[in-house]
C-alpha cells in the first residue's frame, strides 16, 4: 500500500473542499520562495493568487481528465482513452476542433489516488444533474469529471449568436450524473448566479461574461433597442440574450 502525506494539512496547504471522489488542495502560502520573489509571493497569497490541486481518490470508480493534467498516480489505477471506436474518434476530433478543447481525454479507473497538475485558476465543482438539459460551458473550462458525466458538442441556436456576440459557434455541454471540475477565471464568491424559473424569463448580458448556462436556455444575440439608430443613440450595441428556464453563471468582468 502506498502512503502519502498529501492529504494531511501542513503550514502551507490544506483541503478546502470535497465533492464525491474529488478534493481540492489549496496552498495558503508558497514557502518555497527566494529573497528575490518573497515580496511578490506574499502579496499574491494575500490576494488569493494561490496554487491549487485537484485530488481524486478512486475506490473502483473512474474519472475523465483533461489531457496533460495528470501529475501523479498511486495505487491500482489504469488509464485508457475515452474513445469507443472509429466513429467516436472522428466525432471527438471534430468536437475538439470546433470547441478548442482536447479531443482525447484520458479515463482513469481503479483503486487509488490521482493528483492533477497545480493551477493558479479557481476550481469549481458542479453537480451536472442539477443543470436542466445539461451544463454548457465556455471553452477551456473543463478540467476533470466523473466518468458518468457525458460530454457532447452543442451548437448555438443561430449563427448570429456567435458572430455578433463575440462567442464561438460551438460549446461543450456536460450532462448525466456526477461532478464536473472546472477551471474558472474568477472564484465562486465573485460569480453571479442567476436562476430563471419561468419559461418566459429573459436575461440580457452586455458581453461574453457568462461562463456556463443551462442547455435548456435559448441563446441569441439581439440589439438593445428595436432599431439600429436607437442602439447607436443609447451607446449600446448587441447583447447576449438567454430565454427560458435554467441557470447562468456569470463572471463580474468579461473573460
Count of individual beta strands: 17
Please provide the ordered H/E string of secondary-structure elements: EEHEEHEEEEEHEEEEEEHEE
What is the CATH-assigned architecture? 4-Layer Sandwich
The CA-CA distance between the termini, in Å, is 44 Å
Query: Over the alpha carbons, how many angstroms does the gyration radius reach?
Result: 20 Å
Q: How can the largest sheet be summarized?
A: 8 strands, antiparallel
Q: What is the CATH class designation? A: Alpha Beta
The name of the CATH topology is: Double-stranded beta-helix
Shape: globular
Tell me, rounded to a whole number, the average pLDDT. 84
Number of domains in the coordinates? 1
Strand content: over 45%
Give the structural class. Answer: mainly beta
- Helical percentage: 10-25%
Stretches where pLDDT is under 50 for at least 5 consecutive residues are 92-99, 230-235
Q: In CATH, what is the homologous superfamily? A: Mitochondrial biogenesis AIM24
Instruction: Enumerate how many helices there are, as a single number.
Output: 4
Amino acid at each position: 500500500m502506498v502512503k502519502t502525506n498529501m492529504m494531511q494539512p501542513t503550514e502551507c496547504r490544506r483541503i478546502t473542499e470535497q465533492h464525491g471522489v474529488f478534493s481540492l488542495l489549496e496552498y495558503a502560502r508558497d514557502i518555497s520562495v527566494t529573497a528575490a520573489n518573497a515580496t511578490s509571493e506574499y502579496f499574491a497569497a494575500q490576494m488569493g493568487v494561490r496554487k491549487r490541486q485537484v485530488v481524486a481518490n478512486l475506490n473502483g470508480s473512474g474519472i475523465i481528465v483533461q489531457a496533460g493534467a495528470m501529475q501523479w498516480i498511486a495505487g491500482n489505477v489504469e488509464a485508457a482513452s475515452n474513445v469507443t471506436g472509429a466513429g467516436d474518434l472522428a466525432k471527438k476530433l471534430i468536437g475538439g476542433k470546433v470547441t478548442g478543447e482536447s479531443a482525447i481525454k484520458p479515463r482513469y479507473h481503479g483503486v487509488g489516488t490521482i493528483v492533477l497538475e497545480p493551477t493558479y485558476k479557481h476550481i469549481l465543482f458542479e453537480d451536472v444533474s442539477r443543470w436542466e438539459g445539461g451544463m454548457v460551458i465556455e471553452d477551456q473550462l473543463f478540467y476533470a469529471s466523473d466518468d458518468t458525466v457525458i460530454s457532447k458538442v452543442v451548437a448555438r441556436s443561430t449563427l448570429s449568436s456567435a458572430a455578433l456576440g463575440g462567442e464561438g459557434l460551438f460549446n461543450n455541454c456536460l450532462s448525466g450524473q456526477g461532478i464536473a471540475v472546472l477551471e474558472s477565471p474568477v472564484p465562486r464568491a465573485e460569480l453571479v448566479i442567476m436562476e430563471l424559473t419561468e419559461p418566459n424569463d429573459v436575461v440580457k448580458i452586455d458581453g461574453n461574461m457568462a461562463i456556463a448556462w443551462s442547455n435548456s436556455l435559448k441563446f441569441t444575440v439581439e440589439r438593445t433597442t428595436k432599431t439600429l439608430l436607437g442602439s447607436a443613440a443609447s451607446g449600446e450595441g448587441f447583447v447576449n440574450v438567454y430565454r427560458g428556464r435554467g441557470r447562468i453563471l456569470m463572471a463580474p468582468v468579461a473573460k
